[in-house]
From TrEMBL:
It is a multi-pass membrane protein. This is Acid-sensing ion channel 2. InterPro entries: ENaC. Gene3D superfamilies: Acid-sensing ion channels like domains (2.60.470.10), YojJ-like (1.10.287.770). The lineage of its organism: Eukaryota, Metazoa, Cnidaria, Anthozoa, Hexacorallia. The gene is ASIC2_4.
Length: 536
């Protein structure tokens, strides 16, 4: 049988092949496939979209060197930019954006809660009234002096004579309610602190409407005794008040009597006046730590502006939290605050140091309530030491800022008081026999026997005028926003690689495709080599 021959020429050399020979045809096909799959780096550089890559294999040596240096320089700079961008991204920087919103809806601008405490924790006038049926006048005066000794942390209170004379100061109560009732009974009362009102004189008003002691909620503090919060919004029937007007003629106006002559001598805290705190209804009023002190004999005006603060969560530096904190023996303060968290840490430190807990804090049933001597001799000292302790530093880390909270910016101004109108008001009540005009004669009756100068001194020493109002009907939102997010990182890197190397995501895919094809070819070549060896 005859076969038709075909001549194939490659590089000037002729080979005779038989197109009917299946083995020869298959070898030619395999050679063509292998030739296609064995793409070299030079060939890839000619096809890739990476700018300048095709010149790395130029025929001219100087040109190759120039383009190699240029490509390496661009790659080095891009690598530096990648490192810089990643380091900056890892820092998680953020912007603080402040925007001012005008309140068009009264529900948007709530009037804050206002907490006030008399700087004197025990009213000696009330104390005498409460214990007069149990002790003689001389014994009562002795007990008041003993209380002053405790407040001054005198060494005399450690004597057995003092303990025998005042056993109640060393007895730990079994229930917090007992301590609260006893401490609250001898503290200053808001109905007595407010000056008596008439149709022409309001000692408490909000936006021109009369208010009274019923609009205040009492709670206890170890340092100031009984404190009172206006507009606490405690209970469903007592919603928070809305601000409808701005300016000095609106807002809360209080006229108060601090009863300076009923103060207990306290050489460690020889202060006279009120501590006040303006805060959100759901935040615990940390008056002992952040209260503002105001003095009698002057008119204090406080302009406020509401601020809503929005912080960022982890991984940003603020690392804010939305958690709740159940710390106090009260159901009206539910929001987490950094201050409340630190107070819990401080109370835990107090429990370790003193073996008891102040009555206002929730504690395990096994932890007793602190007695008065515990509070004076141990609690105060442990709280002072807490500030310099290692626990404080740990608590600072464990107590992040809340993600959402409200604060009030305050601006103060002062003016003198007109004594004559106040003296006339009080004297008219004392001289009036109308039973409808109620006045606590135990407080104000000494005015009847005073001279004019003594009455003026009484006003200067006891009366406080306090006005709190919104400076305008707008509120600020202070919000942290990410400065360098993931898409910004991708955009920066993409811009750098695109500008210096002309790269895109598809360029990266080209390199990956080339690498995978190379790996595939090497693996297939090894498999074919093993097959050939097995045949021979």
């Amino acid at each position: 049988m005859a076969f038709r021959q075909q001549s194939v020429g490659i590089s000037g050399v002729e080979y005779n092949t038989n197109e009917h020979d299946p083995r020869i045809s298959q070898d030619i096909k395999d050679d063509n496939v292998d030739h296609h799959e064995m793409e070299g780096l030079r060939s890839f550089a000619q096809d890739t979209t990476l700018h300048g890559a095709r010149f790395l294999f130029a025929d001219n040596a100087c040109r190759r060197l120039l383009w190699t240096l240029a490509t390496i320089s661009c790659l080095t700079y891009c690598g530096y930019q990648v490192f810089t961008c990643l380091m900056q991204f890892n820092k998680r920087p953020f912007n603080t954006k402040i925007t001012t919103h005008l309140s068009t809806d009264s529900s948007e601008l709530l009037f804050p809660a206002v907490t006030l405490c008399n700087l004197n924790g025990m009213n000696t006038r009330r104390y005498k009234q409460l214990v007069s049926q149990f002790y003689s006048e001389e014994r009562i005066e002795r007990k008041i002096k003993d209380i002053s000794l405790m407040l001054s942390r005198s060494n005399e209170i450690l004597s057995e004579e003092f303990k025998q004379r005042n056993p109640e100061y060393f007895r730990r109560p079994k229930k917090a309610n007992y301590t609260n009732e006893a401490q609250g009974a001898v503290g200053h009362q808001i109905e007595e602190m407010l000056l008596p009102s008439t149709s022409q004189f309001n000692s408490c008003s909000i936006d021109g409407m009369q208010c009274s002691a019923n609009n205040f909620t009492g709670y206890l503090t170890p340092m100031f005794g009984k404190c009172f919060t206006f507009n606490s919004a405690k209970g469903a029937d007592n919603p928070p008040l809305q601000a409808t007007l701005a300016g000095e003629n609106s807002g809360l106006k209080l006229r108060l009597n601090i009863e300076r002559e009923s103060y207990v001598a306290n050489p460690l805290r020889p202060f006279v006046g009120l501590a006040i705190l303006i805060h959100d209804q759901k935040s615990f009023p940390s008056v002992e730590d952040f209260g503002i002190k105001i003095q009698p004999g002057v008119s204090t005006l406080i302009a406020i502006k509401r601020r809503k603060i929005i912080n960022l969560k982890e991984p940003y530096a603020t690392n804010c939290t939305d958690r709740t904190l159940d710390v106090f023996n009260s159901d009206k303060h539910s929001n987490y605050t950094k201050a409340a968290c630190l107070m819990k840490c401080r109370n835990d430190h107090t429990i370790k140091a003193c073996g008891c807990s102040p009555a206002k804090f929730k504690a395990k049933s096994s932890v007793p309530i602190c007695a008065p001597n515990d509070t004076i001799l141990c609690v105060y000292r442990s709280q002072e030491e807490f500030g310099a302790s290692a626990e404080k530093n740990k608590c600072e880390k464990d107590c992040p800022e809340p993600c959402y909270h409200t604060k009030y910016k305050t601006s103060f101004s002062y003016s003198g008081l007109q004594r004559e109108p106040l003296i006339e008001h009080l004297m008219s009540l004392l001289n009036d026999t109308d039973e409808k005009l109620s006045v606590n004669r135990a407080i104000y009756e000494p005015l009847l026997n005073m001279t004019k100068s003594e009455k003026e001194k009484y006003i200067d020493d006891n009366i406080i005028s306090l006005d709190i109002y919104f400076e305008d009907l707008s509120f600020d939102i202070i919000e942290q926003t990410p400065l360098y997010e993931t898409w910004a990182l991708i955009g920066n890197l993409g811009g750098t690689f695109g500008l210096f190397l002309g790269m895109s995501c598809l360029t990266i895919l080209e390199f990956l495709d080339f690498v995978f094809r190379k790996i595939f070819y090497l693996l297939r070549g090894q498999r074919k080599a093993r097959t050939v060896n097995a045949e021979y």
